[in-house]
Specification:
The chain has helices at 19-42, 50-70, 78-92, 95-107, 111-137, and strands at residues 4-6, 13-15. The chain has a domain at 4-93. It has 138 residues and is mainly alpha-helical. The chain is 72% helix and 4% strand. The N and C termini lie far apart (38 Å).
């Protein structure tokens, strides 16, 4: 969510953060994590993890609203992006960043990227969770 800069001669982009931006990400992340625990704890568990679903949907909606209000990250709003989108939404739910990236791919008129990214992320994370669980049980 923060501005990426390209190094000359390299295809990879890197995110350059100032110390203040890092502190804002940490502060927002701490607040978001506490809010996640509070909000998800308000919803009784059932057959589905409704509290987790609630924070994922709410965090995704908040991410979309913030990105629409703040616009693309630039020098004038980089601190707000650090605090609210990367920090708060990232701490509240990492699903919000994933949802925003899918939305960006949908807007780029490349549906094959959107579908591929969604399937790859969900399937690989599920498999990684299973693998981690298996490794942790041995």
């Amino acid at each position: 969510m923060l501005r990426r800069s390209r190094r000359r001669g390299r295809g990879d982009s890197v995110v350059r953060l100032t110390a203040v931006q890092l502190l804002l990400v940490g502060t927002g992340g701490a607040v978001g994590a506490v809010l996640r625990v509070i909000v998800s704890g308000l919803v009784p568990a059932g057959r589905l993890p409704w509290g987790t679903l609630l924070v994922n949907v709410a965090g995704s909606a908040l991410m979309g609203w913030l990105m629409a209000r703040l616009g693309e990250p630039d020098a004038g709003n980089a601190r707000w992006h650090a605090l609210l989108t990367v920090g708060l939404c990232g701490g509240f739910t990492t699903f919000s960043a994933f949802s925003w990236q899918l939305w960006e791919q949908a807007r780029s008129a490349r549906p094959e990227l959107l579908l591929g990214h969604a399937l790859l992320a969900v399937c690989s994370c599920f498999i990684a969770t299973w693998l981690g669980w298996r490794l942790g049980r041995t």
